[in-house]
Amino acid sequence: MTATAPSKTKTMTMVAAINDALALALERDPAVHIFGEDVGVMGGVFRATDGLQTRFGAERVFDTPLAEAGIVGMGVGMGLAGLKPVAEIQFAGFLYPALDQILSHLGRYRHRTRSRYHLPMVVRAPYGGGVHTPEQHADSPEAILAHTPGVKVVIPSTPADAKGLLLAAIEDPDPVFFFEAIKLYRSVKEEVPEGYYTVPLGKARVVTEGDDVTVICYGGMVEVAQKAAEAARAHGIGVEVIDLRTLVPLDTDTILASVQKTGRVVIVTEAPRTGGFHSEISATVAEEAIEFLRSPIVRVTGFDAPYPPFTSIEDVYRPNPVRVARAIRQVMAY
Amino acid sequence: MSQPQTTPPDPLTAGAAAYEDAQGEMFQTLAPDGSVIRPEALPDVPTRLHLYRQMRRVRHFDERAWVLYRTGRMGVFPPYGGMEASQVGTAAALTHDDWLFPTYRDTGAALAYGLPIPQTLAYWRTSPHGWAMPQDLKILPFYIPIATQYPHAVGAALAERRRGTANVAMAYIGDGGSSEGDFHEALNFAGALDAPCVFILQNNGWAISVPTRTQTRATNLSRRADGYGIPGVRVDGNDVLATYHVTAEAVRRARAGEGPTLIETVTYRIKPHTLADDPSRYRTDADNLGWDAKDPVTRLRAHLLAEGHLTEEEDTALTREIEAEFEAALAVADAFPEPTPAEIVDHVFAEPTPQLRRQRAQLLAEEQA
User: Fold this and answer.
1) What's the rounded Cα separation, in Å, for the pair A101 and A46?
2) What gap in Å lies between CA B187 and CA B151, rounded to an integer?
3) N or C: which end of chain B has fewer CB within 10 A?
4) What is the pLDDT of residue B10?
5) pLDDT, tens digit, for every residue of B52-89?
6) Which H or E element spans position A32?
């Protein structure tokens, strides 16, 4: 949290904090424009943009045709021409039509014009499961974005972080993907500072401290890891939970400092297993800190299968506190 | 089928409805022999001479590119020779406050817009100097992915409107590119959001080896505008006075807040897809029949000579001037230093991530080892 963080707070859900951040950004910078499907009149399918069109007008907050490549591609042009586009993709599982724009263009402008142009664009998208959404609505495609050079990837896990990180993302001169865990939109409330503040990109948060096991996670998995950590603490195991907050830039210093202290690592994401960002964290730990490890690194992840649209087994796919606790016991028993 | 008309409808006000003719009726000012068809649509003489000079400049670049490529002084280059009227007439309708989104085939348009020759050469020689776009131009490096530049033009145009300027954005595409989803999304966005865009669709008959008749069942690509509620204009893409007239009107409309226009320039890719391509694998000389006679440069030259706006001596002097300009630019381009390995990781973010800093240090260490 920056030193300018105001002292007054208000109880907010994550979606309310996001709405607050968007309103503050629109207020502060006339270049900020918010657009996407249903973001204007309706205020977004999750109400993240609720009331913004009424307050700031249909030029600053506007509905677009239903076409993701068009939304991201148009945003690219707006950003090149001096605006600050903040696009909403309705669900992360629907960003695939825009992947060409994202992979071909989003992260390349500074590089391909040798800094003559840069792209101060933000793309927001709800992601992840745990709320029994229909098919295709619960994907976690963050690794695709983290693997795309020139794009930053931010995934908050608390209302206060969501607000500060989103304002930092909008301030950032480069493109930022901002994934919002659907599960956390309304399930968590906390005291959120009023007014404008930023949480810097690239700084992980140590959620709970512990000496025995490091659990690395982000977004929707942070509360899962916290529950598992509480259960482990009841058995006398000290779990250090690290919320990465941003995958790009990645705060390896915080990860490695914790690993050097605990010597045991569990990484938790709800994304498919092969080639997920959990694999990148695992490789980084193996390269940089293998001599500190007292057990193999364990990844708790989704499966190499599409996220199941079957309510009765969805929670088997998505890591839960029991699975994470099992992984903690596994690294302790090695 | 349209009836023969004594006064042809004005395509700019009648919109796509003026182009009912699947036989390919299109807007022309000059016949292939240079004789005037539509005197009312001709720009003034200085403009005609300017367009001629630009066509000669960009043709010279295209011809020299062949030679440089064969002698190893040029990378892979997509030639546009024969399409000069389509590129020059459209780009010349812009000012440097307007945006230009060119594809890899549009080196001619970029040069006519004002991209300096040394930088243009640098681009096709894969030197970073060819990507460092001049500060005083609103042009992007040539687009390699097909059709992705179309939505960018919509965004840039919309941004200009939001910022209260009268500047417009122009983007190019080919007949093949108009099959891509981004083309259709962009046209729809531009119409729905009233973006001051000019969309140039250069129908040059070929997408590498695929002819337009295989690409689509549509025979008049300007009609694609109908689906998005915007005007579509079909113009002889080898008639530079016609492409200029039609584009200038589309630009005027966009500036005045009257929305986007799609312009199909009917032209032909006489040359290979790139200098590495062998067209004999997919087409014969018969396919190209008649296109040499429609050459855009000789057409305007014939007109200017016949009307007394140009003399043979002036034309010869122009040739010498263009050659000298190119050779001087080539010398400048030859002097651009090669990039260093560390430049691989430069210009990714305003503030390099710790990961990028480490990778840069690694590259430097390897360089000095």
Assistant:
1) 25
2) 8
3) C
4) 45
5) 999 999 999 999 999 999 999 998 899 999 999 999 99
6) strand A32-36
Mutate to test the interface with B, among A74, A84, A117 (most CBs of B within 10 A): A74
* Whether pLDDT at B19 is above 80: no
> In this structure, what token pair is assigned to residue B46?
């200085």
Instruction: Tell me whether residues A77 and B157 touch, CB distance under 8 A.
Output: yes
Position B3 pLDDT exceeds 80: no
Nearest to B222 by CA among B253, B273, B261: B261
Q: Which two tokens stand for residue B8?
A: 């042809």
Cis? peptide before A249, omega within 30° of 0: yes
Section B141-156 average pLDDT: 96
Phi, psi at A78, each rounded to 5°: -65, -40
Note the pTM of the prediction, 2 decimals: 0.90
CB-CB under 8 Å, A113 with B158: no
Does the distance separating the beta carbons of B182 and A113 come in below 8 Å?
A: no
Contacts of A110 in chain B (CB under 8 A): 347-350
- pLDDT-derived band at B289 (thresholds 50, 70, 90) equals confident
Neighbours of A87 (CB within 10 A): 26
**Scanning the structure block, which residue is given the tokens 């008649």?**
B290
Catalytic residue positions of A? 137
Among candidates B285, B188, B196, which has minimal Cα distance to B228? B188
Reference B243, options B254, B256, B233; nearest CA is B233
Query: Is the CB of residue A117 less than 8 Å from the CB of residue A174?
Result: no
Q: Which of residues 333-352 of B touch A (CB under 8 A)?
A: 346-350
pLDDT of residue B91: 98
Which one of A62, A112, A176 makes the best mutation probe of the B interface by having the most chain B beta carbons within 10 Å?
A112
SS3 per-residue string spanning chain B: CCCCCCCCCCHHHHHHHHCCCCCCCCECCECCCCCECCHHHCCCHHHHHHHHHHHHHHHHHHHHHHHHHHCCCCCCCCCCCCCHHHHHHHHCCCCCCCEEECECCCHHHHHHHCCCHHHHHHHHCCCHHHCCCCCCCCECCCECCCCCHHHHHHHHHHHHHHCCCCCCEEEEEECCHHHCHHHHHHHHHHHHHCCCEEEEEEECCEECCEEHHHHCCCCCHHHHHHHHCCCEEEEECCCHHHHHHHHHHHHHHHHCCCCCEEEEEECCCCCCCCCCCCHHHCCCCCCCCCCHHHCHHHHHHHHHHHHCCCCHHHHHHHHHHHHHHHHHHHHHHHCCCCCCHHHHHCCCCCCCCHHHHHHHHHHHHHHHC
DSSP A102: I
Whole-angstrom distance, CA of residue A91 vs CA of residue B55? 48
Query: How many residue pairs bridge chain A and chain B with CB atoms within 8 Å of each other?
Result: 145
Residues of A in contact with B140 (CB under 8 A): 80, 113, 117
